[in-house]
Design goal:
The protein is α/β, with parallel strands linked by helices and 151 residues long. The chain has six helices and five strands. A five-stranded parallel β-sheet has the order 2-1-3-5-4, sandwiched between helices. Belongs to the LacAB/RpiB family.
């Protein structure tokens, strides 16, 4: 499975940590950026290309691809990602991880948006593993609802 990862300045440190964490577990990780810390960066400039890459894979049906995006709250990043056809991004910024399971099982989310300000490194690692390990249920009602998104 290929994992695309991107952040803004607020998520940069956590992105770098997660990149190494995932590589050590055998995932192929493609870092979309930023490649260095810049407190003046704009998240659409890195999240947009990640979302486009995930969208291209979703529409082509080629291989398993997921995205991990990070920002202060994760909200703006998810908004950018969800503007691309075929991208289904959900936000996790702490609390019950059941929401991560549901975004995968019910919505077949292919991008996880993390609110880096609200998560410890351990919380982020556990959230990412749960996201990657939880399969889509494939239930007819969920398949039908997802098909209604990209009309």
């Amino acid at each position: 499975m290929n994992i695309y990862i991107a952040s803004d300045h607020a998520g940069y440190e956590m992105k770098e940590m997660l990149k190494v964490f995932l590589q050590k577990r055998g995932y192929e990780v493609t870092d979309i950026g930023p490649m260095s810390y810049n407190p003046q960066d704009d998240y659409p400039n890195t999240i947009g290309p990640l979302a486009k890459a995930v969208s291209n894979h979703a529409s082509s049906g080629e291989g398993d691809v997921m995205g991990i995006i990070l920002g202060y709250s994760g909200q703006g990043e998810a908004i950018v990602a969800n503007r691309m056809k075929g991208v289904r991004a959900g936000v996790y910024a702490g609390g019950s991880r059941e929401s991560i399971q549901l975004m995968r099982e019910h919505n077949d989310a292919n991008v996880l948006s993390l609110g880096a300000h609200f998560l410890s490194h351990d919380d982020a690692q556990q959230a990412v593993l749960l996201f990657l390990d939880t399969p889509f249920s494939g239930e007819e009602r969920h398949v039908r609802r997802i098909a209604e998104l990209d009309v």
